[in-house]
Design goal:
Blueprint: H1 2-6, E1 11-13, E2 20-22, H2 23-39, E3 44-47, H3 48-54, E4 65-72, H4 74-78, E5 85-92, E6 95-103, E7 108-113, E8 118-120, E9 123-124, E10 137-139, H5 151-162, E11 167-169, H6 174-182, E12 188-192, H7 196-208, E13 212-214, E14 227-231, H8 234-248
Parallel strand pairs: 3-4, 10-11, 10-12
Antiparallel strand pairs: 1-2, 4-5, 5-6, 6-7, 7-8, 8-9, 12-14, 13-14
Helix pairs in contact: 5-8, 6-7
């Protein structure tokens, strides 16, 4: 991945002009796939590029399953912007039990195991204690508004959230953003449309850092649901859910 970040890349598109992939996405996923199958031959594997090649929606079963995004933040990666990473999660009985997110550009590795807390380069991390959106630094990926089918919905939510939040950021990588929530650098993150490989590892890392992860409607988090709210505190997450519900009725 470092080789590709600093060197020449071949960029192709998948579902749209902004859904891009490089040869390094495919190389990283191949290395990880082969490694997991060799070490854990009975385990299943869900990878972004494998799913794109199959042109099918991923299915999560109760079997031990590795959920991988070989390069999260591919657009950042292509443009030489340092917020890009490898994201790996392990689910057993549809519950996340291991999460690893590594940014080789900054040499930052976020890790979590169920019940064991979350760490950054081996040092424990914790979410912020902010409970009100008016005091929070919120992240939201405004770039999803390029899709005309959901543009109106996104802009209504952005207007509602940004009018209250103390700060507003869009980082271009769901996994990195979730790590920053886990470490307390960001207070909350909301996004619909993310795939399981975008959020699997990050959801566990946030939970183990003391934060809250749920579906956008406030229901318990489902890694396959593609609707995410995460925050350092339950009170802040609940406030964001209510604001979204109100914005969606406008």
């Amino acid at each position: 991945m470092l080789e590709g970040f600093h060197g020449t890349k071949t960029v192709t598109t998948k579902s749209s002009q902004w859904d891009i992939v490089t040869e390094f996405d495919k190389k990283v996923e191949k290395i990880l796939t082969q490694g997991f199958y060799k070490a854990y031959p009975s385990h299943k594997f869900i990878g972004e590029e494998t799913a794109a090649g199959d042109k099918s929606e991923p299915i999560l079963t109760d079997a031990p399953t590795w959920i991988v995004d070989p390069i999260d933040g591919t657009t950042n990666f292509v443009h030489g912007f340092h917020l890009t990473c490898i994201s790996i999660g392990l689910a057993i009985n549809k519950e996340m039990v291991v999460g690893v997110i590594y940014n080789p550009i900054l040499d930052e590795m976020y890790t979590a195991s169920k019940g064991q807390g979350a760490k950054l380069n081996g040092i424990p991390i914790h979410t912020s204690k902010v409970t009100q959106l008016s005091q929070a630094m919120l992240s939201y990926e405004i770039g999803f508004a390029r899709n005309p089918n959901i543009r109106s919905l996104i802009m209504k939510r952005v207007e509602a959230l940004v009018s209250i939040a103390q700060g507003f950021r869009a980082l271009g990588s769901a996994a990195i953003t979730m790590c920053y929530v886990a470490a307390g650098s960001l207070d909350a993150y909301q996004m619909n449309g993310l795939q399981c490989w975008d959020v699997a590892a990050g959801a566990l890392i946030i939970s183990e850092a003391g934060g809250v992860v749920m579906n956008t409607d406030g229901s318990p988090f489902d890694v396959m649901a593609r609707k995410l709210v995460c925050a350092g505190t339950r009170k802040l997450a609940d406030e964001i859910v209510e604001i979204i519900k109100q914005a969606d009725t406008l």
